[in-house]
Amino acid sequence: HYKRTSPGLVGIYTEALYDKMHHEQQLREGLRQAIERKQLLVVYQPIIDASSNRLWAIEALLRWQFNDTWVSPDEFIPLAEKSGTIHDIGAWVLHRACIDAAQWDDESFGVSVNVSVLQLVSEDFVACVDRALASSGLAPQRLHLEVTESIFADDMAVLTANISALKARRVKVAIDDFGTGFSSLNLLQSLDFDLLKIDRAFVQQMAVSSDAIVKATVLMAKALGCKTVAEGVETEEQASLLRLLGVDCLQGYLFARPLEKKALQEWYTSWQDNK
Ligand code: C2E
Ligand code: MG
Ligand code: MG
Ligand code: MG
Predict the structure, then answer these.
(1) Taking a C-beta distance cutoff of 8 angstroms, is the pair 174, 147 a contact?
(2) Cα–Cα distance between 119 and 91 in angstroms, integer?
(3) What gap in Å lies between CA 257 and CA 230, rounded to an integer?
(4) Do the strands 69-71 and 55-66 form a parallel or antiparallel pair, or are they unpaired?
(5) Per the database record, which ranges form the EAL domain (predicted)?
């Protein structure tokens, strides 16, 4: 009698675990064919210059339609990273975003593409960026790459070399979701980022409790020579506080949700008329 477990309970647990694994397995398999089956879509969210209110850049955000449902990138990107499809998918997004930005008659704003750390530490990533730039004709200084701070020291040599190669081409590198990940301040100093994106958690906290983190982040970014972008700006109150604190650029639902290319062009026309 020393171990009385309920068989029923174990059964349910196993079944739930099995379902989850089966679901993940299906997604992983599905991801392998997502490109050829044309299930991937890139949407774009505007990033606004905080002082002039002009469009400063657009951020490319990936969408995947699988079995008639839209799967969130927060769910499928980690799976793509685990199964290795992130390299093909990442290259596809990069090409798509560069082409869309280059085809626009207005060249005054940049295009920001999220890249996985796995891409950034891969030996042929710089060649992949070169191909996207060459085939689209996009000016390299218009391309920004966003990487979430979860960088591991093992990969430092390739990472550092890739970042310097990108910077030599005048491509800008941004640290995304700043303040939520694992990177150290030391890394921030040694890697020489161009942009720092303040995570929306701090933007949301600012108006309710304290603006200390945003304030300190802006000062630190200035000292390091980084531009700052605040993410997840949803209210006028947040926008004006961020302007007061000297944040360079603003992004969030207050200005626009991520939009398909055509809807973005319409948004841009009305934005220019009304700002
Ligand atoms: P992220 O790069 O930090 O992107 C910002 C996320 O916040 C996006 O979610 C965006 O839709 C959402 N957002 C923007 N403004 C607001 C706002 O005002 N309020 C709120 N509540 N949310 C806002 P999304 O599109 O679901 O993307 C989630 C994450 O998935 C991204 O976070 C990024 O880390 C990753 N991701 C998306 N596309 C790609 C991609 O092409 N490659 C890679 N490696 N990762 C991607
Ligand atoms: Mg991002
Ligand atoms: Mg972010
Ligand atoms: Mg994020």
Answers:
(1) yes
(2) 9
(3) 15
(4) antiparallel
(5) 24-272
Cα 57 to ligand 3 centre (Å): 14
Measured CA to CA, the distance from residue 106 to residue 59 in angstroms comes to 16
Q: Would you say the CB of residue 46 lies under 6 angstroms from ligand 1?
A: no
Q: Give which of 170, 168, 165, 217 is closest to 196, Cα–Cα.
A: 217
Burial class (CB in 10 A: 0-12, 13-18, 19+), 186: exposed
Of 183, 173, 177, 189, nearest in space to 140 by CA: 173
Q: How far apart are CA 70 and CA 153, in angstroms?
A: 35
**Tokens 């209110």, located at residue:** 53
Q: What are phi and psi of 259, to 5 degrees?
A: -130, 150
Confidence of residue 84 (pLDDT cuts 50, 70, 90): very high
As a whole number of angstroms, the distance between CA 167 and CA 173 comes to 8
* Residue 12: CB atoms within 10 Å: 11
Q: Tell me how far the alpha carbon of residue 90 lies from the centroid of ligand 2, in angstroms.
A: 13
Q: Is pTM beyond 0.90 here? A: yes
Question: Measured in angstroms, how far is the CA atom of residue 181 from the centroid of ligand 4?
Answer: 10
- 76 neighbors 84 (Cβ within 8 angstroms): no
User: Taking residues 102-116, what's their average pLDDT?
Assistant: 95
Protein residue closest via CA to atom 12 of ligand 1: 232
Per-residue pLDDT of 154-192, as tens digits, reads: 678 898 999 999 999 999 999 999 888 766 777 788 888
- When pLDDT is cut at 50, 70 and 90, the band that residue 1 belongs to is very low
pLDDT greater than 70 at residue 9? no
Tokens of 262: 């055509």
Nearest CA owner, ligand 1 atom 11 = 258
Model pLDDT for residues 38-76, shown as the tens digit of each residue: 999 999 999 999 999 999 999 999 999 999 999 999 999
